[in-house]
UniProtKB/TrEMBL annotation:
<dbReference type="InterPro" id="IPR029058">
    <property type="entry name" value="AB_hydrolase_fold"/>
</dbReference>
<dbReference type="GO" id="GO:0016747">
    <property type="term" value="F:acyltransferase activity, transferring groups other than amino-acyl groups"/>
</dbReference>
<dbReference type="Pfam" id="PF00756">
    <property type="entry name" value="Esterase"/>
</dbReference>
<dbReference type="InterPro" id="IPR000801">
    <property type="entry name" value="Esterase-like"/>
</dbReference>
<protein>
    <submittedName>
        <fullName>Acetyl esterase</fullName>
    </submittedName>
</protein>
<dbReference type="InterPro" id="IPR050583">
    <property type="entry name" value="Mycobacterial_A85_antigen"/>
</dbReference>
């Protein structure tokens, strides 16, 4: 595998920032790479998946590129008192990375996932732009923004004094139902996670109101890297349908 750290000036943020990339050793010449846009959580950064999990080992036998941008404490928003991180991600990071690297733009080859704040970001991306992806994989996502002031003392830098209720639900209801139902969903959260109750409610909304088919995984675990590290192999095996130890399709052994 190749691990790249790209630091450059980005127009939207008007500053230099970093994007972390994992690429296969062998880059195919006849097609572009599938891409997992992997979004970090609050208090972390894009290097967390590389430093705190064995992600590099897990995707060794795949043709998957992983892109993890630095999004600070933005909650994947254009900040009320700060920088336009949402515009940066959607209008600059994704198109610029496709210019620099052999990444497929085909929705079938694009997947989005993330942990905690990044799980929220993954859902927000999927609900805003369901035609960009084939798969969304939130891990322990924040789904209720009314919990935000208790999580972060700087929440008012994101919000304008009004804490939006049902934020994700509103985005989903604005999206094409057909487009949302076309997506595959892998969703996981630990039973000891303090966000479990709100996620259970949100899953019921997705299944009952939006009529989405969700691969919902629960079980022992908290809101931490021990749980996410344990779930990564399961998530990637489900996504790619290959044995991560050798890259062969499942069922062909």
């Amino acid at each position: 595998m190749a691990i790249l750290t790209l630091t450059r000036a980005f127009t939207k943020l008007q500053e230099q920032t970093t994007i972390h990339v994992i690429l296969p050793n062998e880059i195919p010449s006849d097609h572009k790479l599938q891409v997992l846009w992997l979004l970090h959580g609050l208090g972390d950064n894009g290097s967390g998946f590389i430093r705190k999990t064995n992600l590099e080992v897990l995707i060794k036998y795949t043709q998957l590129a992983v892109i993890t941008p630095e999004m600070n404490r933005s909650f994947y928003m254009n900040l009320y008192k700060g920088l336009p991180y949402w515009d940066y991600l959607t209008q600059e990071v994704m198109p610029e990375m496709r210019k620099l690297l052999p990444l497929s733009s085909d929705p079938a080859d694009n997947f989005v996932g993330g942990t905690s704040m990044g799980g929220f970001g993954a859902l927000k991306l999927a609900f805003n732009h369901p035609g960009w992806f084939s798969t969304v994989m939130p891990m322990s996502p924040v789904v209720d923004l009314t919990e935000l002031p208790a999580m972060m003392p700087d929440a008012q830098e994101i919000l304008d004094g009004i804490v939006p209720e049902h934020y994700l639900e509103t985005l989903a209801e604005r999206a094409s139902p057909k487009a949302l139902r076309r997506l595959r969903y892998f969703y996981c959260i630990g039973d000891q996670d303090p966000l479990k109750a709100t996620n259970d409610q949100f899953i019921q909304y997705m299944q009952n109101d939006l009529k989405l088919k969700i691969e919902y995984h629960t079980g022992e675990g908290g809101h931490d890297w021990l749980y996410w590290q344990r779930m990564l192999p399961e998530m990637l095996t489900w996504l790619l349908k290959v044995n991560l130890s050798d890259g062969y399709p499942l069922g062909n052994q």
